[in-house]
Structures are given as structure tokens and as C-alpha cells.
Amino acid sequence: MPWSNQGGGPWGSGGKGPWGSGPQPSGSGPTPPDLEEILRRGQDKLRSILPGGNLGGKGFALIALGAIALWGFSGFFRVESEELGVVLRFGQQVREVQPGLNYHLPYPIETVLTPKALRVNKIDIGMRVVEDQRRGSTVRDVPEESLMLTGDENIVDVDFSVLWKVKPTGVGEYLFNIQNPEGTVKAVAESAMREVIGRSEIQPILTGARQTIETAVQDLMQKTLDNYGAGVFVQQVQLQKVDPPAQVIDAFRDVQAARADLERAQNEAQTYANRVIPEARGRVAQITQAAEAYLQQTVAEATGQTSRFVKIYDQYKLAPDVTRQRMYLETMERVLGGTDKIIIDSGAQGSGVVPYLPLNELARQPQPPQAGGRQ
């Protein structure tokens, strides 16, 4: 070096350092570093390494090759498991790389961006989760985000969460089309929820329309973000709390209890109707079938009697006296067959009672005496 043969180094003779003062005597305070000595030692080490003791052409060549090798090795980079790499060539996107060890042309030809595109992000709207070492996790309401106006001009307090991530094929859009991805997703989510709530009435919102609202908000958010070219995929919308405002929540609870009582009474009435109506229908069918059977029986009996009368009348026309006598005897048989009879002969002398043998009474079997009874 030009100053290697000078006694005072590059700052001149006298042993002064770069601060304009030479070595300080002991005990006079801290001594500044001796840069001249450091440079001399570095020069001696470099001479001992290089052949011939000086740089020369080969030395510069070795230094250049080492610098080029280091520059080439600087292109290796690693993409973590939750990341995707986007390689830029002079600021323009050329390709995307997957997690793992990858390579790009060294800076400044190519550079790489590694956003956490595979991680599922969560945004809470209408509430904030506050971490406290003493109390643990607590939820704080944000009324300016959660209070919304329904279609029937009521106010409802809605807290919800949005799960989103970067589209696998939209990493470039995510990096270059939107400046604040999280803020954009939050603003779109709040706007979509207000629009869906504004088209609905409060009663379905508080009861059974949660799934419908979540699906509608998710579809509207995805459509809006796609129009922005944000490269964001909305994975799920979760309603955390849907309540009336705190000032009127007691009145709403009374209304909900009355509606529950109404539904219970309607269900009990429907259950009673479901039990009584089939029984009544069964009785109606039974009475109808009995009436039809009686009708058929009566008609059949009348038809039979008519046929019998017609046959008897035909016989009567052939032999009136015989038929009349037969009808008289059959009639008397039916009338007197089951009664006690005493036959009196008006032409006989005396009492006029005609004795006869009661064969029907003789045919009756005597009853056996009961056990333990009298003989």
C-alpha cells in the first residue's frame, strides 16, 4: 500500500491516529482503537495467503471468482410450510414456487416474496378478543361495527367471524392488487353483512335463519373480492352472537318467550287433533259399514220374503183350499208351539177336557241334585 513505508501511517507521522492524537499515557482514560495496526495485520495475513506475497492478477481473479460464487449462492431461498413464493424478475412476476428449498437468479436480477398464502386467517367483526394474563381471554364488544339495521327497521347486534386465505392461484393478485388485504377483507365482510341484514326481518334473524345469513354473506363477500381481483378465498362466515340491543333485550326475551308458548300450544293442539281426528274417522267408517251391512241384510231378508210369498201365492192359485189349510196349520204351530195347552172338547160330556200325553215334558232330563243339598 502507498502508506506501508511511512512511519506514521495514512494520517502522517507522529503516531497520531484518525482522531488527531497519538497514544495516550496509561491511566489517562480509554485508548481508541489503533486502526493502523489493524490494517497492517490484515495486509500481512493477505500477503501470507496469496502466492508471491502480493495480489497480482491471480489474486484479483480469485477474489472475483469468490465474489461471483457468493453472489450465485445468494439465490437460494427457503419457503416455509405456510408460505408460497413469488419470484420477481426486475419487479415483474415470473413464477410461483411451493414450500421447500428453491432457487432464483441472484439480486438484483430476481427477488422473491413469501406471503403466508397457505395459512387460514380469522377476522372478528363486532368484537375483539383481549388477552389478559390475570383474567385470561375476554371479549370486548365494538358497537360501531356490530349494530345493524334490519329490513323491518329494527336494530340488531351481530358479532361474526370470517375465515379466509389466499387463493392457491391468486398469490400475485393478493400481493399487487390490494394494499391492505386484512383491512379490505374486514371492510367487505362488514358491508356484506349489513346488506344481508338490511334485506331480512328481525324475527328470522334471531331464530332460525343463521345458516341462510352465513351462506348469503359468504357468497356476497366472495363475489365482491373477485371483482376487486384480491386473490382471496372466503372459507367460512360464522355468526357468533345475534341479539337485540342491550337496552331492549329484556322486552325481546319476553316476546320470544310468548312466541315459544304460542308454538307449544299450537303443537299440543295439533297433537290432540292428530289423535282425535283418526279416531273419529274410524268411528265414522265403522258406523258406515254397519249401516251398509244392515241395509244389505234387510234387503236380502225382504227379497227372500218376497220370493217366499210369490211361491206360496203360486201354490195358492193352484190349490187354494189346501194352501189355506196349510198356512193356518203352520201359523198355529208357530203360535202355540211354545205355550202350555189345555184342549177342551165342546161336544164331550163332563168337564170337556181332553187328556193327552205330554211327550215333550217326558223328554226333559231330570236335573242332578247339587252337592251338599237336600234330597
Characterization of the model:
The chain has 375 residues and is α+β, with helices and mostly antiparallel strands. The protein is rod-shaped. Strands 6, 9, 10 and 11 form a four-stranded antiparallel beta sheet that branches. The protein has a three-stranded antiparallel beta sheet with strand order 3-2-5, with no helix packed on it. Helix content is 47%, strand content 18%. Among the domains are: 1-7 and 35-73, no CATH class; 76-113, no CATH class; 121-247, Tetrahydropterin Synthase, Chain A (2-Layer Sandwich). Mean pLDDT is 76; it is low at 1-30.
Give the topology, please.
Elements lengths: L34 H15 L6 H18 L2 E4 L5 E5 L2 E6 L2 E4 L6 E4 L7 E5 L1 E6 L3 E6 L1 H4 E3 L5 E12 L4 H6 L4 H18 L3 H5 L3 H19 L3 E12 L5 H70 L1 H17 L22 H4 L13
Antiparallel strand pairs: 1-4, 2-3, 2-5, 6-10, 7-8, 9-10, 10-11
CATH topology of the domain at 121-247: the name is: Tetrahydropterin Synthase, Chain A
Report the sheet with the most strands, covering strand number, pairing sense and barrel closure. Answer: 4 strands, antiparallel
| Unreliably modeled segments | 1-30
Query: What is the top-level CATH class of the domain at 121-247?
Result: Alpha Beta
Shape: rod-shaped
Order of helical and strand elements: HHEEEEEEEEHEEHHHHEHHH
Number of helices: 10
- Our measurement of the CA-to-CA distance between the termini, rounded to an integer number of angstroms, reads 165 Å
Q: Which percent band covers the strand fraction?
A: 15-25%
**Level-2 CATH architecture of the domain at 121-247:** 2-Layer Sandwich
Q: Cα-atom Rg, whole angstroms?
A: 58 Å
What do the pLDDT scores average to? Answer: 76
Q: Give the helix proportion (percent range).
A: 40-55%
Give the number of DSSP strands. 11
By helix and strand content, what is the structural category? alpha+beta
The CATH superfamily of the domain at 121-247 is known as: Band 7 domain
